Amino acid sequence: MPELPEVEVVRAGLAPAVTGARVEGVEVLDARSISRHDGDAAAFEAALTWRTLGMPARRGKFLWVPIEGPGEAADALLAHLGMSGQVLVREPGAAPDRHTRIRLLIDQPSLHAAGRGTLEIRFADQRIFGGLAVRPLVADEGGAAVPDQAAHIALDPMDARFDASAVARRLRRRRQGVKAALLDQTLVSGIGNIYADEALWRSRLHYATPGERLTQARALALLADVRDVLEQALAEGGTSFDAQYVNVNGQAGYFEHRLHAYGRGGQPCHRCGALMVREPWANRSSTRCPRCQRRPRGIAV
Ligand SMILES: [Zn+2]
């Protein structure tokens, strides 16, 4: 499943192709991929055709492209990548991509000087948990414009407005385990299973440690580890543990070999050499070092 770094890689790759481009055609090949759009395929196509696209934005794992004019930007094209969604930029007439569900034909003026201009944006999704929707932009608590479906999502640790001290204080009011808190998108967004395990390993914390047992310094250190893990993954193009994830140019990420926890059950801890353990956790799994990340006293898991 794509996490924040993968979505940011897609956003950055999409930016030069779509920013300032005009939509000249939309084709919905599978209506299941617009199930989050209010309206049918014809309404989706009408909401985009002849509109101009703005700079792609992201919050947590939500990715959207503001739609400009006529009038002020009031809508956005929101992309949910779900489990297996991909956004691909292709030249017109490029070979088909498997599982393409929606195609956008756009005209990118910055390519005109080179005698080109038309690009095809393809939304491909094998398992159809993702999709595209045109949604209204609303103002969040800080006054920033976000699609209505993303308005409940907290800022992610890479956002310039992220207030680590305030989030640490809220984390310390939680009785639940820290991993569950990190995955709660209303507390902090953009953290999935992989990067939660990585940050907990760095912070030497067991996933079931109650938030209320952390000191402010420990909570701040954990959030700093989260940000470091995300930034490292981003610098390296995202984590490609899932063969279905490829970035906007069809190139797989390569952070996988740098993982310390996720996917390393039965292998030696990179810090102390103890064998890492993979345990069932909330219908998923958690991988931790039994020596560096001991079970908190009095907490059953
Ligand atoms: Zn260890």
Describe the structure.
The chain has 301 residues and is α+β, with helices and mostly antiparallel strands. Helices cover 22% and strands 23% of the residues. The protein has helices at 4-18, 41-48, 164-171, 178-182, 193-203, 216-235; strands spanning 22-28, 52-53, 57-59, 62-68, 75-80, 85-90, 100-107, 118-125, 131-139, 145-147, 277-281, 284-288. The longest helix has 20 residues, at 216-235. The radius of gyration is 21 Å and the shape is elongated. The chain binds zinc ion (ZN). Zinc ion binds at residues 269, 271-272, 274, 289, 291-292. Residues 269, 271-272, 274, 289, 291-292 line the site of zinc ion (ZN).
Write the layout of secondary structure elements.
Elements: H1 4-18, E1 22-28, H2 41-48, E2 52-53, E3 57-59, E4 62-68, E5 75-80, E6 85-90, E7 100-107, E8 118-125, E9 131-139, E10 145-147, H3 164-171, H4 178-182, H5 193-203, H6 216-235, E11 277-281, E12 284-288
Antiparallel strand pairs: 1-7, 2-4, 3-4, 4-5, 5-9, 6-8, 7-8, 9-10, 11-12
Helix pairs in contact: 1-6, 3-6, 5-6
The structure holds zinc ion.
Q: In a nutshell, what does this entry contain?
A:
The protein is built from 6 helices and 12 strands. With about 300 residues, the protein is α+β, with helices and mostly antiparallel strands.
